[in-house]
Amino acid sequence: MRIGIVGGSGDFGRGLAERLRRVGEEVLLGSRTPHDDLVSNQECAEEAELVFLSVPPGGVEDMCSSLAQNLEGKITVSVASPIVFVEGQPGAAVGELSLAELAQRAAPGARVVAGFHTISAKALARADDPLDEDVLLCGDDEEAKAVVAELAERIVEGRAVDAGRLQVARWVEPITAVLLNVNRGYKANAGVRITGLP
Ligand SMILES: NC(=O)c1ccc[n+]([C@@H]2O[C@H](COP(=O)([O-])OP(=O)(O)OC[C@H]3O[C@@H](n4cnc5c(N)ncnc54)[C@H](OP(=O)(O)O)[C@@H]3O)[C@@H](O)[C@H]2O)c1
Question: What global pTM score does this model have?
Answer without folding.
Answer: 0.98
